[in-house]
Structures are given as structure tokens and as C-alpha cells.
Amino acid sequence: AEFECINSKKKQKKKGYKNSGVVSVKHCQVVKEYTFLDYIMGGCQINFTVAIDFTGSNGDPRSPQSLHYISPQGVNEYLSAIWSVGNVIQDYDSDKMFPAFGFGAQIPPTWQVSHEFPLNFNPSNPFCAGVEGVVEAYRVCLPQVKLYGPTNFSPIINHVACFAKQALQQTTASQYFVLLIITDGVITDMDETRNAIVNASRLPMSIIIVGVGGADFSAMEFLDGDDGRLRSLSGEAAMRDIVQFVPFRQFQNAPKEALAKSVLAEVPGQLVEFFNTMKLSPPNPNPAPNPAGTI
Questions:
Q1: How many domains is the chain partitioned into structurally?
Q2: pTM for this entry
Q3: Which domain holds residue 163?
Q4: 32-64 pLDDT, tens per residue?
Q5: In a domain, 266, yes or no
Q6: CA separation (Å) from 205 to 32, 137, 159, 177, 248?
Q7: Residues pairing with 52 in the sheet
Q8: DSSP output for 265-277
Q9: Residue closest to 243 by CA, chosen among 275, 282, 211
């Protein structure tokens, strides 16, 4: 198709004026840019995994000063974070079955330190039924482990990344993985964690870090990457920002919905950005025409 460029003023002044140029369209393709809702309604499954910090810096769970101390009312900061975020998360998870892990504790029967142990102590089936299942598994697990350390994030990030990598072999946007890490402090394996996040940025995966307690969370802000692209130890830049950090105590006196909203603020955009970049459509895209389609 060709279109003439006409300058009306020149046309009035010049008798032999034809045009000021011709635009030739050699190729035209209408590209559907899917929204977060398009992916969810089109069959994309969001898989949430919960990871809880059981390192010694949390304090003895039997002490009221401990972040793991369960009050007579049956709550602590970890449980509050699980409830607040989980109740929103499960609305996006069709089967509402969440793998739940702990890290940084000595676990029975050998009392070796583990950085990715199932809260239900069942490696072949670490799934918990809904938020209630995660809470119950946490309550049962807590008195059975010894809080230890160090605070290593990379094992659980790499664990979830393995499943995200498998999902990427499919030809549609069928699965997206979100890892929720609830922690009290400074990361010990920062270099390995940076590498793990940079690798995960190329996979259908996001990471949400909720910080509990009053520790220095500057390292978490660094991983968030809002001030620039996170880089691995070798200098490789992340393909996209996949980390969202939220300090829990800023929301203690706010409605629970405020924490959940802040925690999940970036996930929809991260999901859409990844699948659009990879040119992956939902498994069951809506056949209805999109009047706002872009060229």
C-alpha cells in the first residue's frame, strides 16, 4: 500500500504540485499485547512458593523477644506476613496448593543445616493446602527445628528456578512462578544470590522479599534493583527487575490489604513483560478482537 503526503498550502500555490513524498508500507503486522488479566483468564497458572527464615538471628522462639515467638493470641510477624500476603496470593493460584520451605535451621534427624527443607518434612510432597495449610505446617515445624544459620537465599531461589526453567520449554505462557521469602535480616551469600537472581530474570519467575523485624535491610533494597539493573558477580546484567522488597513493619499499623497490595504491586507487570518479551501467548487466548491492538 502507498500513501501520498500532501501539503495543502503547497497544493494551493503550485499548479503542478503532486505530493511531497510517498509512504510505502512494505509490511504490516498487528501485534496483540496481552494484559495480566489476559494471561490469567487465558489459563496461565501462577505457582507460589513460600520460604521462611529459620536462622538464629530471629531469637529463641520461646522468648517473647523472638520474631518466631507465637504470642498467646497465636500470632507473630511471620504468621502475620503469611496471612496478609497469602490471602491475596491464593486468589491467583487455581489449585491453592503452595510448596512451603524453611531455610537456615538444623533439622532432624541428623541436625544438619538445611537451606531448603519442606515445612512438612516431606521432600516428595512439600505442598500445603492454602494459606491455612502453610500456617499449620509452620506451627508444627517451628518446635521441631533448631534455629541456626547462615542466611542463604540462593538455594531456594535456584530450587524454584529449576521448575521455572522446565516451564519455559513449553510454547505458551502456561506457568509463572513467584517465590515469597520472609526473612529477618542480612543475606550471607550475597554473591551467590545475585547470580541466582540474574539467572532467574531470564525465566518466568518473580521474587518477593518481606523483611520482618528491625534489622538493616539495605542489602534487600539493593537486590530490588529499582535504582538500576542488578548485576551478577561477573558483571552480567539482569534481563529485567524481578525482585520486590517490602519492610513488614512499615505496614504493621496499616490495614492488611495495604501490605498485600504493596507486596504484589510489581508481579503483574513483571509477568506481562516477560511473556511479551518472549512472544508467548496465553494457552487459551481470548479470540475476541482487541480494538486497542498496537501496530
A1: 1
A2: 0.86
A3: 36-277
A4: 789 999 999 999 999 999 999 999 999 999 999
A5: yes
A6: 22, 24, 12, 5, 22
A7: 102, 182
A8: SSHHHHHHHHHHH
A9: 211
